[in-house]
Amino acid sequence: MNENESNEGGGALLSPELAEDGMLSAVAVGEATLARGAKSGSVVLLQKVLVELGASLTPDGSFGPKTHAAIVAEQAAAGLPETGVLDAATLLAIGRRLEMRRKGRLHDAMAAAVGGAPSRAAGAATVAGGPSRHDEGYFDDAAALRGPGAGPVADPDSPPPAQDRAGGKAKGPLPADRAEQLAAVRRSIGDDAPANAALERLLAAGRLHDGALLPNLATFARTPRNPALLLEAGIEPELLLGQVIRHVDNPLRVQQGAGHGTCGAGVMEYVLLRSEPAELVRIVDGITREAREVTLRSGKRLEMPRSAIARDTSGRVDLDRLFQSAIMNHASAMSWLFDYDNPEDNDTFWAAVRGNSQMAVYGFTSVYQAILGGSYASATRLSRPKDEVAALVATSAARGERVPVILEFRTYHWLSVEWLEAGKDGKPASIVLRNPWGKDEGGDKPPRVAMPEGGGRVRMKYADFIENVFGATVRG
Q: Are 317 and 418 within one domain?
């Protein structure tokens, strides 16, 4: 594992390809500037962003007259002093415009993936780089999205459970202490038929007979929730517990939601449900109590931001919104100063710097390790060949691990590797991934086809995976 790709530090800057650059990070916090005459890899990264924003120059690492002119143009567009020097304010302005441009592309990719096309309402207001997500008609499904404060989103049990390759085995009656714990859970969820059905499936599969899952569910059932959940969003304790049970039963229910850059947090939620569902239950129990925080295995505290409580327009069920917001709140090095704003999908320290909330690889890795424990590290194409990054993923997947990866979907997007499929020669032939959108009908950017069970699972040729993978979090 490359020493420069460890999970130390956190946060993100503008986009994943810039996130790990020390000089640009220093510029972002006002500790340095870049000006004409500079020559470095940091300048190359800056130039690539300027080219993406429309500048006519060659990313050669030399801050010359063309780079100077491009910076002046960005400063003029943002109403900043036209110095030609890259300082914190200029980098923030560039990051915001880049984010708007990429978010528009991501929406186009999402629309294409579900068979739609980008739509814009006639006369909708626009800003430099693309429309705001608040504009009418920004989403193809705008009419179906809930407004803030509306009732709970539909919570379907589709696709059906038991989609995973491994199932539990019946283990006979529960011991007396566990039978009482199960009774407490049943009393709490009451007549919630889908939750009761999911609970019975967990019992029949032997998943409640040992381990921490049932005790954690019982603790959840017996512990009061933060009153603001009910008073501000109408989230009753039994509703939230029912969602937890149904997610444990069928993790394919996890969704990132529309208009939020929470793909990394959605992947983290999904992988945790697959690998250690009892820990997911414990974490959600902690962040929805009065204190809104829980101590992770690493000793770090995970806190749910206050802004996550009210329902938003993302279309996520309450559990997804609350958990993902807590993850986003701690995906930066400065989360102790700046809270994540869920309705606006921004306002962590690094989000304020780069204008969005998408997590870079090593920021994800830091939080992922804090939650799961053990040793994890990031691997990216910034310092490794793409086939080497893919090989690290394949090695982990061959061990039966679900691996979080970033792929290029017109912009960078987190998914999780489900399993690896080998050809007749024993070499990787295809790879199955799970998209946190929760629905992916396939597409050509990157090339992929939908799996029959749906739920966001797609199959990709291994050669295409190599071409499109940007980075991954792997066991170190």
A: no
Q: Would you say 259 and 138 are in contact if contact means Cβ atoms under 8 Å apart?
A: yes
312 Cβ contact list (under 8 Å, min separation 6): 146, 148, 257, 260, 321, 342, 343
- Looking at the predicted structure, is the pLDDT value of residue 345 above 70? yes
In a domain, 292, yes or no: yes
Q: Give the type of residue at 456.
A: G
Q: Is residue 169 part of a domain?
A: no
Cα–Cα dist 269/247, whole Å: 10
Token pair 């090339």 in the structure block, residue:
447
Q: Are residues 464 and 339 in the same domain?
A: no
**Could you give the count of Cα atoms lying within 13 Å of 185 in the half-sphere of its Cβ?**
31
Separation CA 257–CA 312 (nearest Å):
10
Which residues fall within 8 angstroms of residue 285, CB to CB, at 6 or more apart? 216, 219, 220, 223, 294
d(CA 245, CA 220) in angstroms, rounded, equals 11
Q: Both 222 and 320 in a single domain?
A: yes
- Among the listed residues 416, 381, 348, the one whose alpha carbon sits nearest the alpha carbon of residue 10: 348
Both 203 and 247 in one domain: the answer is: yes
Domain with residue 39: its CATH number is 1.10.101.10
Domain limit, last residue, from 57, 78, 93:
93
- CA separation, residue 227 to residues 62, 187, 289, 467 (Å): 57, 20, 8, 49
The greatest distance separating any two alpha carbons of the chain, rounded to the nearest whole angstrom, comes to 77
The residues near 17 (Cβ < 8 Å, ≥ 6 apart) are: 45, 48, 382, 412, 470
**Does any domain span residue 166?**
no
Q: Which residues fall within 8 angstroms of residue 97, CB to CB, at 6 or more apart?
A: 53, 74, 77, 78, 128, 129, 355
Kind of pairing, strands 293-295 and 428-434? unpaired
Q: Are residues 197 and 280 in the same domain?
A: yes
Residue 43 has φ and ψ, to the nearest 5°, of -65, -40
How does residue 177 score in pLDDT terms, banded at 50, 70 and 90? very high
Residue 226 lies in a domain: yes
317/377 same-domain check: no
pLDDT surpassing 80 at residue 347: no
Provide the residue range defining the domain that includes 121: 99-144
pLDDT in tens, 408-452: 887 788 999 999 998 888 889 999 999 999 989 998 889 999 988
Element (H, E) at 250: none
284 with 204, same domain: the answer is yes
Same domain, 135 and 37: no
Instruction: Compute how many other C-beta atoms are within 10 angstroms of the C-beta atom of residue 149.
Output: 11
Can you spell out the DSSP letters for 108-174? HHHHHHTT------TT--EETTEE-TTSTTSSTTGGGSPPTT--PPP----S-S--SS-------SP
Angle of helix 65-78 relative to helix 41-52, nearest 10 degrees? Answer: 50
